Structure formats: C-alpha cells, structure tokens
Amino acid sequence: MTSTSYLRVYQPLATFPEEDRSRWVRDEPGDTNPEAEAGRRWLLSTSLPEAESVTEGALVRKINGVTLVCPWRTRLRMLAGLLAFRGSLPEEVARAFVPEREARKAAEELEALGEQHPDVRSHILHANWHVPLRWFSAFDENERILTEDAGGLRVRYETSLGNATTRLGRALAILEGAWIDEGVTDAVRELLEWVNDFPEDGLLELDYGSVAQMFGAEELVDDDSAAQVWVCLDALEAGDVERAGAAFEALSEKWTQMRAREVVN
User: Which of 156, 191, 203, 238 fits a disulfide with 145 by CB distance 3.0 to 4.6 angstroms?
Assistant: First the structure.
C-alpha cells in the first residue's frame, strides 16, 4: 500500500453545474472515497482503464450550513498522473512502466478534455510517502486539526482559499528575496497558481491521509510542521539565515526519513 497525503480544494455546491450538484448531493459520499483508491490501480496494469469504467463523484462537507464539495476528477488526475510519472523516469525505464502508445493516448485524451471542458480542473493534489513542505506554507499552526477514528489519529489543516492565497504570496515573496534555490521557489509559485485558479470563497484542506499511519501517536500529537515552516520563512524574512537553516534542517530530516520508505517500497 502506498501512503498518500492530499491537498484538496472545496467550493460551494452552487458554483457547479446543476447536473453535478444533483448527483453529488444524492450520493453524499462523505469523507470516504473507495472508488478513488481503486482508480489508482491503473498504474499496475501499465494501461489506462476505459473512461466509462472510472467512477466519478465528490467529497461533500457542510460547514456553517453551507455545502462544500471537492470533485474527485478521477479521470483527469489519472491522465495527468500517468504523464507526470512517465516524464519523471529515464526513457528506457519509462517505456517499461508506461508504453509509448499509452502515453500518447493519455496526452491526446487530456488535450481533448481541456478543449471540451476548459473550466474543469483538478481539485486534488496528492503526494506519496510524505507531505510536501510547501503545502504547509498555506496554513497557520492554529488551523491544525487532530482527530481520531477507527484508523487511528488523523491530522488535517483547514483554511479559506483567501487566507491560503495571502500566505502563499507572502511565502513566495520571502523566498524570491532570499535567493533560495530556484526549484523551491518555483514549487511554491506553482502551488500559488493552482490555488489562484479557484474563487476565494472556498476551503483548502491539507489531509495527512494514510501518511499519518507512518507516525507514532506521540509524534502526531507533537507534530508542528506548519509552525516550523513559518519559523523558517520568518527567519529568512528577518535575514536570520542561521535560524532559518536550523529550522529547515530539522524539518527536512524528519520528512526525508518518511520519504525514504518510497525507495524501500
């Protein structure tokens, strides 16, 4: 099993087409999404499933009387994920996992989706075996939510898209002014652009997902990654490179140990 974390955008139900609204409210899948988990099995077969075999739906939340939804966009994520995965590997290795014919088919279908539905975008980002540090820069430490269910402790962060945009914009400005590695700056810029694609009246959720199961209970209770990311950013803004370096080193060591399991698996 691959441990996965998620960054999700929820928008008011009223902002979506009536056909989608009626289906999502009728289905009311809540916070569980077994179909989306099953949909990831396409990678093991080295070929995409037929479009009609992919289940679509949405996560539904009700906050202060307002219904918010996060569409799965399973097919869209499958196509983009397959191409991104193939592009991350040397060509000789990539062909073994994703044959060229399947990559071409995915690229053509993704292009067609963009032309037919230019307003449709993925509301979900995911990461395997870790939580990307850049995700934490969209949140304040006080927005951390620790809960417990049958699967154990869970960690989530929630904030408005307006707050997330403001924080990501500030983080980007700090990084640009601190002459940090371009790869880090570009990653935050790309995340800000993704968040900016949505109206500010939505909700941004960071969910540790099954990555939480990689930690012990005490580690999850004490986890303060969002706070430490902003310790690092605030130190950079103040010109305190030593303090920023110490905070970043501690965070990197912690999450690098988690990501090492990707190699083992």
Answer: 156
Closest-CA residue to 262 (of 133, 125, 128, 134): 128
DSSP class per residue in 110-175: HHHHHHH-TT----EEEEESS--HHHHTTS-GGGEEEEEETTEEEEEEEEEHHHHHHHHHHHHHHH
Do residues 247 and 125 lie in contact, with contact meaning Cβ atoms separated by under 8 Å? no
**225 is in which domain, residue-wise?**
130-264
For residues 137 and 228, what is the distance between their CA atoms, to the nearest angstrom? Answer: 10
| Length of the chain in terms of residues written | 265
Residues 144, 100: contact at Cβ < 8 Å?
no
149: number of Cβ within 10 Å: 8
Nearest partner of 63 among 154, 136, 158, judged by Cα: 158
For residue 27, pLDDT over 60 is answered with: no
**For 191-229, how does the pLDDT look when each residue is reduced to its tens digit (9 = 90+)?**
999 999 999 899 999 999 999 998 999 999 999 999 999
- As a whole number of angstroms, the distance between CA 212 and CA 215 comes to 6
The number of folded domains in the chain is: 2
DSSP-assigned letter for residue 152: E
- 259 and 134 in one domain? yes
Cβ within 8 Å of residue 41, ≥6 positions away = none
- State the burial class of residue 137 (Cβ atoms within 10 Å of its Cβ: 0-12, 13-18, 19+): buried
Clarify whether residues 108 and 205 are in a common domain: no
Sign of the alpha-carbon dihedral angle for 75, 76, 77, 80: positive
Q: For the whole model, what pTM was predicted? A: 0.78
Query: pLDDT by residue (tens digit) across 55-69?
Result: 567 888 988 888 999
Per-residue pLDDT tens digits for 113-153? 655 655 667 888 888 888 999 999 999 999 999 999 887 89
